[in-house]
Fold each of these.
Amino acid sequence: MSSPPTSGIGTPPPTSTSSFSSTISTSRCRREVERLRAERNAVANKMKEKLDPSLRQALVDEGKNLKESLIALEEDLVQLTDKLQLEAQSIPNTTHPDVPVGDEESSVTRKEVGSQRSFSFPIKDHLQLGKDLDLFDFDAASEVSGSKFYYLKNEAVLLEMALVNWGIAEVSKKGFTPLITPEIVRSSVVERCGFQPRAQNTQVYSIDNSDQCLIGTAEIPVGGIHMNSILADSDLPLKYVAYSHCFRTEAGAAGAATRGLYRVHQFSKVEMFIFCRPEESDKYHEELITIEENLYASLGLHFKTLDMATGDLGAPAYRKYDIEAWMPGLDRYGEISSASNCTDYQSRRLGIRFRPAPLEPPPSTNSKKGKGGSSGPTQFVHTLNATAVAVPRLIISILENFQQEDGTVVIPEPLRPFMGGLGVLTPKTKL
């Protein structure tokens, strides 16, 4: 999901003059609201006493004036708080000191697996293969829903289900709990995860006359599953693998590089998510990217893993690895997954903390009975997310890489048990 790029290197950008001014104004306004509330309460307490009619009337008038002033000031406080919140959301996470500095072109290749397949025949892209194999219908979907929607047909339906079930099965073996998430969430949860659902050129579909949005990734509802909670230290790490449909506006996306299934408004995805202790997030980031690499290597894909540069990091990401697979029909590498360490950027906004386990007392011969270790203060967990299966991008990769000269497409071995044993997609006979 797209999000604002970082504007600083290694540390957050300095607070803007506007943000600083808003903070002072909000603080002053809040103090004035508290003062007026105290005065109103004092007047209310005096009214409980036995008073002369003239004095009682004076207090009634004073209370009325305080109430009117308080209403106006509370409205100002709400507006100032909203403004401050919007400015705070524009501040990105810090970045890992080893993250390459610069725009996307400055990203560094971390690993490369396999090599580009050499074809002895003219190759087709996934659109032509889909037409020959009768797998997609973009025209009908465009009439029904608009551009960048599609119908999957015949074996493509089996292939989507196979990819989802295979992904969940493989990741579950690593200790991840399977989830199916809500696909409509509150806008506030989207914002707390680091995205701006109602900003200009947002990728998020908002629902009119409500505070809800369609999700662009299962990262958002999974991130919110423990919102406003204090987790036990013994429960960490919490690992989830979540299936959902995803919806993205793809504002500004156009051109040959986005055609077909590559960039669409609705798709299925399997997402990994981890809540962990702060000192362990780098370790689990490595675990996530290793799981991704092993998944795609087992399919026989050629891909490279990139350590993404600062200019390509979304607001929540402390560090992000992208995996790009070779798509011969498109004649380029295309992103099929990413893995991000968001440290405590999301958990602070979502209110997700953990209580460290009690510390063992030091050995002592005269320690008093019953004096065990003590827990430290609660801490914010770190959150990480990574894509296991982005269905349309993997369908592209499989069709284009494993096409044969006779027009058939070979299904990678790991997926066949999830497709009822089907190993080859064959063109439909035209009557």
Amino acid sequence: MSNNSPAQVSVQEPIDHSIELGHGNSPAAWTSVTVMLVGVVIGCIAFLIGESATTLFWIGVGVILVGVILGPVLKAAGYGVGGSKLKSNGH
């Protein structure tokens, strides 16, 4: 617990919301998330089918891992936020 009285607590500076943070709005991010979402759907379907779909579940996990790897690979290839492949089309 703080021993500061309300008079001693400083107010933070206002946040500048005009700065572009780059929230992953790029082909690399969208592709990675889409592939991982497909993997989750495959895993959910396997879960609903039951114990006989254990192989299908692990295929879904594999698709998720492909999506995790695909994001940084596409970013390195220039498809991330501010990437070299996106400079000419307005991203």
